[in-house]
Amino acid sequence: MVLDAPGRPLRAAELPDPAPGPGQVLLRVRACGVCRTDLHLRDGELAPGHLPLVLGHQIVGEAIAGEAEIGARLGVPWLGWTCGMCRFCTSGRENLCRQARFTGRDLDGGFAALAVADARFCFPLPAPADHPDLQIAPLLCAGLIGHRALLLAGDAERIGLYGFGAAAHIVCQVAVHEGRRVFAFTRAGDEAGAAFARGLGAEWAGSSDERPPEELDAAIIFAPAGGLVPVALRAVAPGGSVVCAGIHMSDIPSFPYELLWGERVLRSVANLTRADGEAFLQLAPRIPIRTHVTRYALAEAEQALADLRAGRFEGAAVLTPE
Prior knowledge:
The chain has eight helices and 17 strands. By secondary structure, it is an alpha/beta fold. The strands form four sheets. Strands 2, 4, 5, 8, 9, 16 and 17 form a seven-stranded mixed β-sheet that branches. It has a six-stranded parallel β-sheet with strand order 12-11-10-13-14-15, with helices on both faces. A two-stranded antiparallel sheet has the order 1-3. Helix 3 crosses helix 4 and helix 3 packs across helix 7 (274-283).
């Protein structure tokens, strides 16, 4: 499924089979998660690295050629290549590499039957009997970025999650497993979303325009709405953190300094490191994380993006090529 230009629907296309180069692996795609970043690229809120472009960066695939054991089950995340030599790469911060290339933006991704990836940026995945393709695909971005955001929120006991979609429904399970108290914020009037959050262990769920019943120690904003930043700051106690977990967000409105004062911290999350991925994929089965997935056929990619935009499903959407 190909994006010809931002703002235009994805179209089905027969492309030449990709060939792996040195250090790369050719994968038969078994599943690919649908991420809000895909939607930002499709809608023109983020600039694609090239056009036409194959979106998709939560790839579960089987190695069929190249620099991997044939038949190996591998996961491909958003971070697809880094230079390995800059001060960020050499200090454990490869997520900040200014030359980084990203799967489904600079590199053709997994909204396809076949995909090529840098073997260094592929994660070995556990056996499908315990972790089916559909269930593990959302962990490769929603889970990875969500978990990094949770780590950056510190050791907060009372944590608010603004926007209860693919990432938040995974992070909620991690936070509850760690003994934290979760307060979930959904769209106004979304009673089903609030019930979904409570079913995953949130002790309170309400609209994003409501104040939680207690001050929060930290908040993570998953919704791409800059207007939530002052809302979250207002809900966080002195010394607390607000973490913006999306790669794109609408403009943040001005707000009085008193909302930030009191040693509150406002920060963003940028991408992931391979160390993040390895740590999270070891943690996920121990919890165990159960993803809630809506399956779409590959040809339904445009519909999946439309449903994501409208909030028509709970949890995550995943495409399968068959």
